[in-house]
Design brief:
With 249 residues, this protein is mostly helical. The chain is built from nine helices and no strands. The structure holds zinc ion (ZN).
């Protein structure tokens, strides 16, 4: 059985991570993620299959591409490693296959949003709407043992509240401080989190995300590298905060 073979699960997780890297690179550029073969992000040349083995190829090639010997971002390796370790962890802790699929889908979408938002300051609608869909669909499967909100009303109210709260912050900041505090991508992301975790999660998640954002900004503020008006992507903090909420609340 799959659930006992952790080497196989690790390999599957790493392959999924490799696909997530493709999504992180191509989705913000509106490139096809399925049919186009892997190419080097630096030289744009096609990658041989033996240079495209998750985790292993990076180590063999010492984090440089074969085509131009250009350095390849550590992100590729980190995403594959996290994806592999996560899947092993889920199989070790969760026994029900439906739960494994739901929690893995959510986590892998989170990873893609996390890195795209850090790099491009956007969150593609396709990802947010996928999260929202999972958040609604999971309400029809009350037998799951996950710590998600299974109550249809609480879930729908959570989605609406999440969207409304961030829209309100955007409008108020624009009126009072004349700056864009957040984007509507963040609003849709918090809506997705609300659908998944219920309305009770919204203010706690927002609060934790704000604290995390502040902690992250302090070093740059103290060294004068940035001011309070410097834009930072908020999506990654919302994601970390929702994971903290999922685990501890
Ligand atoms: Zn190259």
């Amino acid at each position: 059985m799959l659930s006992n073979n952790f080497f196989l699960i690790f390999v599957i997780g790493a392959v999924i991570g490799s696909f997530l890297n493709v999504c992180i690179y191509r989705l913000p550029k509106n490139l096809d993620i399925i049919y186009t073969r892997s190419f080097c992000p630096k030289c744009k040349k096609k990658i041989n299959w033996f240079d495209n083995i998750p985790l292993v190829s990076f180590i063999i090639l010492k984090f440089r591409c074969r085509c131009g010997k250009k350095s390849i971002s550590l992100q590729y390796f980190v995403v594959e490693l996290i994806s592999a370790l996560f899947l092993c962890f889920v199989f070790a802790v969760v026994s029900n296959y439906l739960d494994i699929i739901i929690i893995s889908l959510i986590f892998y979408i989170f990873i893609v949003i996390f890195f795209i938002d850090i790099k491009h300051f956007i969150i593609p609608d396709s990802l947010n709407f996928s999260l929202i869909s999972i958040g609604i669909i999971k309400n029809f499967f009350p037998e799951t043992s996950l710590n998600l909100n299974q109550d249809m009303f609480q879930s729908l109210f959570g989605g609406a509240l999440g969207y409304f709260v961030i829209c309100l912050i955007i409008v108020l900041y624009k009126k009072i401080k004349k700056v864009e505090a957040m984007g509507f991508g963040d609003a849709k992301l918090l809506a997705g989190i609300g659908f998944l975790l219920g309305f009770q999660s919204i203010f706690i998640t927002l609060f934790i995300a704000a604290i995390l954002g502040l902690i992250f900004s302090i070093p740059n503020l103290m060294t004068g590298k940035s001011s309070l008006k410097t834009a930072i992507p908020f999506g990654p903090f919302l994601i970390l905060a929702s994971i903290i909420y999922f685990i501890y609340f």
